[in-house]
């Protein structure tokens, strides 16, 4: 059956080709290879749309493309493509955002006269290709490899301005911190292979299916002496290490704010569609494996809820526009983790999608502002940009409303569903989930506040600097992507209007639920719903619960936004952070997260490394040196036999032969 | 070609035509003498080198054709016996003929530059060709008498060739030492042959094997067999008959060192394999005469001694000489890992394949030395410092040879050593493989010293390299290319080697 899905590898390969083109001949192409990247991502986007349409028609695709290590009495290591509703949706998101980011880059990089553009576009191309490869991966090892490539590309792009002091350091930090998480992921991959003998995501022989069968006693797997339940939890948590690193969850979130050193379009790509999304997508991809482990789910939910609140509070006091957005990203991915942990698979995927749109929008809007402000990112130098850049203003407003979760923008629907799912499962007898829900709910207030603090400081009031009075204009290549994303951030909620359905009783408008319910048996939303260890309970009736939940979260979002309106929508806003007293210092310093991690590195890891180094230098090298010393000494002795006197040779030769003859003669009994 | 093949199949050619490679080599040697007689005053170096190379390449081509066409192999009616079974042409003899002829061709091409300032060039080339004829005959010898005669035919020109630089004390001294040690070894060997004859009453290998069963003189036979082991050890430069090798290789003209350490050693292994497998088969030999154990001892001692001694040398050529002894030790695994009923074809074939790869990489290394001598650069590791800056292409080739000799991927030496050690493990001799692997690890030390000197160290003085010797470059690059290509092309080589080796059992 040769259909459009057979071209799925091309979605991945096109950006890769643009990477090669930009790398090899980018400096001879107009715009430093930008058009190659735009053409490639546009092609991928078209193919992704076709893929989504085909999947909507009920087709799926799961094929091994290449077996790169054939196991003899062991596992095969393969590359394969898995297209199901989840990956098709993600393909669409990634290709769309990547395409828009490429277009935007024309305005942000080319028009601003940046140098090293071929390197930039090569990085973007490889970044997109890696993420797409990760999305279509049909097994965990392939996912891991592309996961690592994504990490590598983020390193290259965050450190794009490598001649300045900040970016290389930020790039290194992003690389090392995520690598710390990936280390656990790698161990987890090996554990999955050792346990199940396969790392496939889909099918009856996939590891989630085998794990489920093992729990039901229908299959036997190697669990290394643990109870299957315990062991699956351990493996799941190992893989989760990579997720926490990539999706910037507490405590491995520290790299993400620093990563703002990268060019703004790259930030948009990282936050909306690639790097950070990869972690959450991985959990969604292998959700069947997590769903059977209540402990793992609880940990995911709690980390998510905590991160959502924790990051939101840090976002309250930041001065730079991109910093606020960075913490909002951490916080929003916390919501997705909360949803996944709370049994809301569809909710998490929904929020992943809407967040991709509005966060890409906000970053590109911030990029537009930054162009206007001549690369000054301090919000206290802005103000009054509203009238000078209306397109940016209105699209940014749409993005802000979506981020804050204000009805009827996209973020409202998805965030509401995240909280709703967590609430009903929490009410169903899981106090831990209720705690996570409370944190998520509280974070809604802070989200509204920091979002509109940023918004008002940037666009309202009087200009607070020379540049803000006379900002630099932006062109179509900046405005175009903003408009597209602005529309999406406004209306994307319609794909899943569950509250409307529940309240008004209009059936069949939960399109995303239906969408994710298709595809492979075992990878469907209702299968996951059967698996999760939660039961649901409601406040009164289901409709009441929906109404109460939505009202509370909307109320909190409005309250937060309203407070920001009161404090910052004035002609000359002042800094209110001083009122926070000592809390301000704590928040400014991000709860001293960096400090304690540096202390861990210096105070714990370094002495350990020193001991290891001493062992290596003293014992291991000592043995090696000893061996070589003995060898050379022995060699010197051997060399001395060669005297150069031929009669000595004859004598030694004869003696040697005689010795052989005697030894073998006695051994063989020749002389008896 | 097609026509010939048809003729071969329909009407078998005269049996002696199977010896065509050896005949061609001998005729080429005679032709060289003829040329020298016709133009005694000013014999053209180009003509001589060209005729030698052409003759040996022709012999190579014929041998390769025979091997592909299946001459002397089982599917075309088995080994071709000649002269009342004293000579035999089979897959193994053709395989070794390939090694000898290709090395001869490389040496002939390389000598073109090396000999440009020397007199008596025709003698040089004809001696090389006669020695090569002897080596080819060694691979075909099927009787202890022809074994000895062909061995001497190979040895006697070699003595003269080592001493070819008559005005060079080192060369003359090396030639004399080689001759003296060679004489002692030949004496030992022929004594051993006479003892075996005394016990079995025959010199033809098959008849010797047949007579083993009802002998009561196991002791005499044992002494004889061990003495033949000695003769073989001399020709392959194995302990304790190796003493001549470092001196001869160092003193001889470098192309001759290449010739002796590659072709002559391979021919020595050819007689070793045939004599011990055919005349003293493991099933028939009396229990007390354990030549496999003797070869195990020799293999371990030879590779260890060769590598340890090589590690402390200062002179690159001498280091290569000892490394060549070490490689003899590896190749001896082919005999040392034989067992009654074991995977003997695999073991022996792996050893043969290693000798083929070794023929390229070792010849290439010595020819690189010849090039360096031609330039007048010194002989120690220090003298090689920074050579890569002035002669990068040659240095790349030498790097390939060194790493291939050490057995590193992605070069031919990696797979041949791997196949050799793997076959030893297959046969149950994991400890032989372990000793070999440890020695290989040690060998990396001294091989990489050359590489380090050429590429990393900075030169002490400027090299005065005026010439780019075409012949030497051609031979070195050919050897380097072959060493590289033998990695992807190792499959057919090892298959051929193991199938022709299996035919012996």
How would you describe what is shown here?
The complex is a heterodimer of chains A (672) and B (505). Chain A is mainly alpha-helical and 672 residues long. Chain A has helices spanning 8-25, 34-56, 85-110, 117-136, 140-158, 166-196, 207-215, 228-246, 255-258, 264-273, 275-285, 287-291, 294-315, 321-341, 345-372, 390-404, 410-427, 431-459, 466-469, 476-491, 498-504, 511-516, 525-531, 542-568, 582-588, 593-641, 646-668, and strands at 61-69, 77-83. In chain A, strands 1-2 form a two-stranded antiparallel ribbon. In chain A, helix 10 packs antiparallel against helix 15. Chain B has 505 residues and is mostly helical. Chain B has 20 helices and 2 strands. Chain B has a two-stranded antiparallel sheet. The chains are: A mainly alpha (672), B mainly alpha (505). Chain A binds chain B through residues 628, 631-632, 634-636, 638-639, 642, 644, 646, 649-650, 652-657, 660-661, 664-665, 667-672, and chain B through 176-177, 180-181, 184-185, 188, 218-220, 222-223, 226-227, 229-230, 239-241, 243-244, 246-247, 287-290, 293-294, 297, 305, 308-313, 442, 445.
Which assembly state applies to the chains in this document? Answer: heterodimer
Question: Total number of β-strand segments of chain B?
Answer: 2
Give, in order, the helices and strands of chain B: HHHEEHHHHHHHHHHHHHHHHH
Largest sheet of chain A: 2 strands, antiparallel
Catalogue the unreliable spans of chain A: none
- Main beta sheet of chain B: strand number and arrangement? 2 strands, antiparallel
Average pLDDT level of chain B: 89
Distance separating the two termini of chain A: 83 Å
* DSSP summary: helix tally of chain A: 27
Q: Can you give the mean pLDDT of chain A?
A: 85
Q: pLDDT below 50 for ≥5 consecutive residues: which ranges of chain B?
A: 1-11
Order of strands across the main sheet of chain B = 1-2
Task: Tell me the distance between the termini of chain B.
Answer: 32 Å
- Cα gyration radius of chain B (Å): 22 Å
**Structural class of the helices, strands and pairings of chain A?**
mainly alpha
Share of helix of chain B, binned:
over 70%
Strand order of the largest sheet of chain A: 1-2
């Amino acid at each position: 059956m040769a259909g459009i899905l057979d071209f799925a590898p091309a979605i991945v390969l096109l950006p890769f080709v643009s990477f090669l083109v930009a790398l090899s001949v980018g400096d001879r192409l107009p715009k430093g290879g930008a058009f190659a990247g735009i053409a490639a991502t546009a092609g991928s986007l078209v193919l992704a749309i076709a893929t989504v349409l085909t999947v909507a028609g009920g087709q799926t695709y799961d094929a091994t493309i290449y077996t790169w290590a054939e196991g003899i009495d062991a596992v095969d290591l393969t590359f394969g493509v898995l297209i199901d509703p989840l990956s098709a949706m993600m393909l669409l998101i990634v290709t769309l955002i990547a395409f828009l980011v490429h277009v935007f880059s024309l305005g942000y990089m080319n028009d601003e006269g940046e140098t090293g553009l071929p390197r930039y576009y090569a990085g973007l191309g490889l970044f997109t290709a890696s993420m797409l490869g990760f999305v279509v991966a049909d097994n965990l090892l392939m996912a891991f490899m592309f996961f690592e490539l994504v990490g590598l590309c983020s390193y290259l792009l965050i450190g794009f301005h490598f001649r300045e002091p900040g970016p290389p350091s930020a790039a290194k930090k992003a690389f090392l911190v995520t690598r710390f998480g990936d280390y656990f992921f790698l161990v987890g991959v090996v554990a999955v292979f050792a346990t199940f003998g396969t790392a496939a995501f889909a099918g009856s022989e996939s590891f989630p299916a085998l794990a489920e069968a093992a729990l039901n006693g229908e299959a036997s797997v190697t669990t290394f002496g643990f109870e299957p339940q315990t062991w699956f939890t351990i493996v799941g948590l190992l893989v989760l290490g990579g997720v926490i690193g990539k999706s910037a969850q507490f405590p491995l979130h520290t790299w993400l704010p620093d990563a703002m050193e990268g060019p703004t379009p790259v930030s948009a790509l990282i936050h909306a569609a690639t790097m950070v999304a990869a972690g959450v997508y991985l959990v969604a991809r292998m959700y069947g494996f997590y769903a059977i482990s209540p402990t793992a789910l609880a940990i995911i939910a709690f980390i998510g809820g905590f991160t959502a609140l924790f990051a939101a509070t840090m976002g309250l006091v930041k001065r730079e526009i991109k910093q606020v957005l960075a913490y909002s990203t951490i916080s929003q991915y916390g919501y997705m983790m909360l949803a996944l942990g709370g049994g809301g698979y569809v909710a998490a995927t929904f929020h992943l999608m809407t967040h991709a749109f509005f966060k890409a929008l906000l970053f590109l809007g911030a990029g537009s502002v930054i162009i206007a402000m001549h690369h000054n990112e301090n919000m206290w130098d802005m103000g009054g940009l509203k009238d000078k850049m209306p397109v940016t203003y209105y699209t940014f407003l749409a993005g802000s409303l979506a981020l804050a979760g204000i009805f009827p923008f996209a973020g409202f629907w998805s965030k509401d569903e995240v909280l709703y799912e967590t609430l009903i499962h929490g009410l169903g007898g899981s106090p831990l989930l209720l705690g996570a829900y409370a944190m998520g709910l509280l974070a809604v207030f802070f989200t509204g506040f920091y979002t509109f603090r940023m918004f008002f400081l940037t666009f309202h009031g009087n200009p607070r600097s020379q540049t803000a009075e006379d900002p630099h204009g932006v062109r179509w290549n900046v405005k175009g992507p903003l408009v597209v994303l602005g529309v999406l951030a406004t209306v994307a909620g319609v794909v899943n209007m569950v509250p409307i359905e529940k309240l008004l009783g209009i059936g069949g408008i939960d399109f995303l639920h239906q969408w994710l319910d298709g595809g492979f048996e075992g990878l469907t939303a209702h299968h996951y719903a059967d698996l999760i260890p939660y039961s649901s309970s409601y406040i009164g009736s289901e409709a009441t619960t929906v109404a109460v939940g939505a009202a509370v979260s909307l109320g909190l979002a409005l309250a937060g936004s309203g407070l920001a309106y009161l404090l910052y929508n004035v002609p000359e806003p002042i800094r209110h952070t001083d009122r926070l007293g000592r809390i301000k210092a704590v928040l400014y310093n991000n709860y001293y997260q960096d400090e304690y991690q540096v202390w861990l590195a210096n105070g714990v890891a370094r002495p350990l490394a020193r001991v290891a180094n001493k062992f290596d230098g003293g014992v291991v090298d000592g043995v090696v040196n000893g061996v070589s010393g003995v060898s050379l000494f022995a060699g010197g002795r051997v060399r001395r036999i060669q005297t150069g006197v031929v009669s000595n040779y004859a004598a030694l030769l004869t003696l040697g032969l005689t010795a052989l003859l005697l030894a073998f003669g006695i051994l063989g009994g020749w002389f008896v | 070609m097609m026509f010939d093949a048809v003729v071969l199949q329909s009407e078998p050619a005269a049996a002696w035509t199977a010896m065509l490679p050896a005949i061609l080599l001998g005729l080429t040697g005679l032709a060289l003498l003829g040329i020298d007689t016709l133009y005694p005053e000013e014999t053209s170096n180009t003509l001589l080198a060209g005729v030698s190379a052409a003759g040996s390449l022709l012999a190579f081509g014929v041998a390769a054709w025979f091997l592909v066409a299946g001459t002397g192999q089982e599917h075309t009616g088995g080994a071709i016996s000649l002269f009342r079974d004293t000579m035999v042409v089979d897959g193994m003899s053709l395989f070794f003929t390939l090694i000898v002829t290709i090395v001869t061709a490389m040496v002939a091409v390389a000598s073109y530059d090396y000999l440009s300032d020397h007199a008596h060039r025709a003698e040089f080339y004809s001696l090389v060709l006669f020695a090569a004829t002897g080596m080819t005959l060694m691979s075909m010898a099927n009787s202890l008498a022809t074994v000895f005669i062909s061995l001497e035919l190979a040895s006697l020109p070699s003595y003269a060739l080592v001493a070819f630089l008559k005005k060079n004390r080192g060369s003359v001294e090396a030639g004399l030492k080689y001759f003296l040690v060679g004489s002692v070894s030949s004496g030992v060997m022929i004594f051993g042959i006479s003892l075996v004859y005394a016990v079995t009453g025959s010199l033809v290998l098959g008849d010797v094997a047949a007579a083993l069963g009802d002998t009561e003189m196991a002791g005499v036979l044992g002494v004889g067999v061990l003495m033949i082991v000695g003769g073989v050890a001399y020709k392959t430069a194995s302990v304790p008959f190796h003493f001549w090798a470092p001196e001869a290789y160092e003193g001889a003209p470098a192309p001759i060192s290449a010739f002796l350490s590659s072709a002559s050693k391979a021919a020595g292994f050819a007689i070793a394999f045939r004599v011990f497998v055919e005349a003293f088969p493991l099933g028939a030999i009396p229990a007390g005469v354990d030549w496999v154990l003797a070869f195990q001892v020799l293999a371990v001692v030879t590779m260890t001694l060769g590598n340890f001694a090589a590690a402390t040398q200062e002179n690159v050529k001498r280091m290569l000489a000892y490394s060549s002894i070490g490689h003899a030790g590896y190749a001896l695994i082919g005999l040392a890992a034989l067992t009654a009923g074991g995977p003997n074809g695999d073991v022996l074939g792996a050893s043969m394949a290693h000798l083929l790869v070794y023929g390229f990489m070792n010849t290439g290394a010595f020819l690189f030395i010849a090039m360096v001598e031609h330039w007048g650069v010194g002989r120690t590791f220090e003298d090689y410092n920074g050579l890569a800056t002035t002669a990068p292409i040659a240095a790349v080739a030498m790097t390939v040879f060194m790493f291939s000799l050490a057995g590193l991927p992605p070069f031919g030496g990696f797979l041949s050593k791997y196949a050799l050690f793997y076959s030893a493990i297959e046969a149950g001799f994991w400890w032989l493989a372990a000793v070999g692997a440890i020695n290989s690890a040690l060998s990396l030390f001294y091989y990489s010293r050359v590489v380090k000197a050429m590429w990393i160290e900075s030169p002490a003085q400027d090299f005065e390299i005026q010439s780019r010797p075409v012949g030497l470059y051609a031979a070195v690059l050919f050897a380097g290319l072959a060493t590289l290509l033998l990695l992807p092309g190792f499959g057919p080589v090892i298959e051929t080697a193991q199938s022709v080796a299996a035919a012996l059992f």
